[in-house]
Design a protein that fits this description.
Blueprint lengths: L2 H11 L4 E5 L5 H8 L4 E4 L3 H15 L3 E5 L2 H5 L2 H10 L3 E7 L15 H4 L6 E4 L6 H13 L5 E7 H4 L20 H13 L3 E5 L6 H14 L3 E3 L14 E4 L7 H8 L2 E5 L10 H4 L3 E6 L13 E4 L2 H11 L9 H15 L11 H11 L5 E4 L4 H8 L8 E2 L10 H11 L5 E6 H6 L3 H7 L4 E7 L4 H9 L14 H7 L3 E4 L6 H10 L3 E7 L5 H14 L2
The structure holds thiamine diphosphate.
Length: 546
């Protein structure tokens, strides 16, 4: 068999459905092998977008998403996507081409040491030097990309390796169960929680796995224990439940931090150091139970007293069977926090001022998204508003990146969600800055006949940085720009362009876009002028008064 055929068979064996990418001359053997395979090629207009799509596919499915690029410039365009997958714990396998390794005719033209370049960005990076190694190296790349903690893997496939003849079959994945926590650590955690007066659950990025969400929901059902989420833990347990006390969208001094400060035992489920470190250990006496796949990293602001290490879903389930609600548990303060937070979030949601204000924006988006709808956020100041004010009802229905926090991933990740969930409502939410970093993928979305809504929040500036600039006490400088006419821009791609003309017009327009086939781009002017007052002052003052 031709080695590139074997490579594609190995990918089929791994269950690969899509390969996102931009092929170069060095990928042509692989492309030809893919032509007759079950794998669908998603040809993109930039490798970075292909990488973001592959990573998001991995995040949504738990199976590694695959992306493909040529050598040199194609591979270097994967750098940000590799970092996105690696920091965000999203399983992804990147395949890049290379000139022949045995005999090279072209000197160093386009040749970079991509394997070395990928080292700090991946769990595994390898150049194939023989077709005989294809089955085991592919399996190894997928094993490492997918196993906890998931991340990026890279395989470089030189042209002459693809052309070899080999007589091998793909390796099958072994059946493997994750290790589970030891009984004694479960018993110790149960005892600590039973004896606590004000226990609180904190749900982080590592808990964002299907089964863990179900087990945590069962725990909250049985115990009525209050919980809060980190940005990447949003929706693991339904945030509209009465036990929810908030999201750690702001780093400190929000309502949720009052709840955290009030807790005497915090069960920290799936904490991942890529999210902001939990500062709650520095300013009050609290006992922390760290529940994760791995032991806690040594850190001056995080030193849990007890660790429950092993499969998280299993540990939560075993703890739930052993725990019983206790009469001495007192959740009154948490309920107060929850009530005040709900009331505060409701403020301004009917504000008619135009351009639209963030509070109303979040509410209107929530109203049109249906329970299982997916919003994919790019990076900008609106991310904080959505993390804090948008109640996620299901896991992975708010795709936000609080790890690399890169701009440019909103549109590609929404597109990946569309491929995985063709029946749900999907919306990319981008700033005008972040949207323009991968806006060329509108063509890909149109070519694949997607039903997709892209909401662009236009403030004609890098708004997040403007806000920080103001906080630092600096003068307004260097962060404003002009924009294309987004309606015409969308139309030039064959998408449908719309402009929000009044605050009241946003919701019906979004509803129309979701119920009408095609790619819809919505230009939505936004007013961030109250960000500083609300996020930096009002919320903190009111939280302090609870
Ligand atoms: C690739 C990348 N470049 C720069 C940054 C730093 N950064 C974070 S938010 C931001 C501004 C985002 O502007 P925009 O997308 O318009 O959203 P806004 O904050 O205005 O809502 C910048 C420059 C980043 N996170 N990622």
């Amino acid at each position: 068999m031709k080695a590139s055929d074997l490579l594609v068979k190995c990918l089929e064996e791994e269950g690969v459905e899509f390969i996102y990418g931009v092929p170069g001359e060095e990928n042509l053997d692989m492309l030809e092998s893919m032509r007759t395979s079950s794998i669908k090629l998603i040809l993109t207009r930039h490798e970075q977008a292909a990488g973001f799509m592959a990573a998001t596919y991995g995040r949504l499915t738990g199976k590694a998403g695959v992306c493909m690029a040529t050598l040199g410039p194609g591979a270097t365009n994967f750098v940000t996507a590799a970092a996105y997958a690696q920091l965000g714990a999203m399983p992804m396998v990147m395949i890049t081409g290379q000139k022949p390794v045995k005999t090279s005719k072209q000197g160093a033209f386009q040749i970079l040491d991509i394997v070395d370049m990928m080292k700090p960005l991946t769990k595994f990076t390898h150049q194939l030097v023989s077709g005989e190694n294809i089955p085991n190296k592919v399996r190894e790349a997928f094993r490492l990309a997918e196993e906890e903690r998931p991340g990026a893997a890279h395989l470089e496939v030189p042209e002459d390796i693809c052309e070899e003849n080999v007589e091998l079959q793909p390796l099958k994945a072994s059946s493997v169960r994750r290790s589970i926590a030891e009984d004694k650590s479960i018993a110790a955690a149960v005892e600590k929680i039973q004896q606590a007066k004000n226990p609180l659950l904190l749900i982080g990025a590592g808990a964002n796995r299907k089964l863990t969400g179900r087990m945590l929901t069962a725990m909250v059902d049985k115990l009525g224990i209050p919980f809060c989420t980190t940005q990447m833990g949003k929706g693991v347990v339904d945030e509209t439940r009465p036990e929810f006390v908030g999201n750690t969208a702001l780093s400190a001094n929000d309502y949720v931090h009052r709840a955290i400060n009030h807790a005497d035992v915090i069960v920290n489920v799936g904490h991942d150091v890529i999210e902001k470190p939990p500062f709650f250990m520095t300013d009050h006496d609290v006992e922390v139970i760290h529940m994760s796949f791995n032991t806690a990293k040594v850190d001056p602001v995080y030193f849990p007293q007890l660790e429950v290490i092993g499969d998280i879903a299993n540990a939560v389930w075993r703890m739930t069977t052993q725990l019983e609600p206790q009469d001495h548990w007192d959740f009154k303060f948490f309920e107060t926090v929850r009530d005040k937070l709900t009331a505060q979030i409701a403020e301004g949601t009917d504000d008619d001022r135009y351009p639209i204000y963030p509070q109303r924006l979040v509410k209107d988006v929530r109203d049109v998204m249906h329970d299982e709808g997916i919003i994919a956020l790019d990076n900008g100041v609106y991310k904080i508003w959505f993390a804090r004010n948008y109640m996620a009802k299901h896991p992975n229905t708010v795709l936000l990146d609080n790890a690399l926090a890169t701009m440019g991933a909103g549109l590609p990740s929404a597109m990946a969600a569309r491929f995985v969930h063709p029946d749900r409502r999907v919306m990319a939410i981008c700033g005008d800055g972040g949207f323009m970093m991968n806006s060329q993928e509108l063509e890909t979305a149109v070519r694949f006949n997607m039903n997709l809504v892209v909401l662009i929040l236009r403030d004609d500036a890098y708004g997040m940085i403007k806000w920080k600039q103001l906080n630092y006490g600096f003068e307004n400088f260097g962060l404003d720009y002009g924009n294309p006419d987004f309606v015409k821009y969308a139309e030039s791609y064959g998408a449908q362009g719309h402009r929000v003309e009044s605050a009241a017009g946003l919701k019906p327009l979004l509803e129309h876009c979701h119920s009408t086939p095609g790619v819809h781009v919505v230009d939505c002017p936004i007013d961030y002028s109250e960000n500083d007052r609300i996020l930096n002052m009002e919320i903190q003052q009111r939280a302090a008064a609870i």
